[in-house]
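Reading group handout, session on sequence-to-structure problems. Before we discuss, look at one worked example. The prompt was deliberately terse, the way you'd type it at a terminal:

> structure DUF3149 domain-containing protein

The input record follows.
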Amino acid sequence: MAFWLDLMFGNAIGFLSMMVIFCTFGIMSYLMWMFVVKSAPTK
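And the output record:
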């Protein structure tokens, strides 16, 4: 576990790649939420 933490957060490249993964997950979650909200039937 310590090896993976050092690999991901030990240098700038690993940190930036983790930021890209988290930002992509956040954007996809937002788009899915918008799809669910917009697809809901209106009264």
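Points for discussion. First: The two ends are 51 Å apart (CA to CA). Second: Residues 1-39 form one domain.
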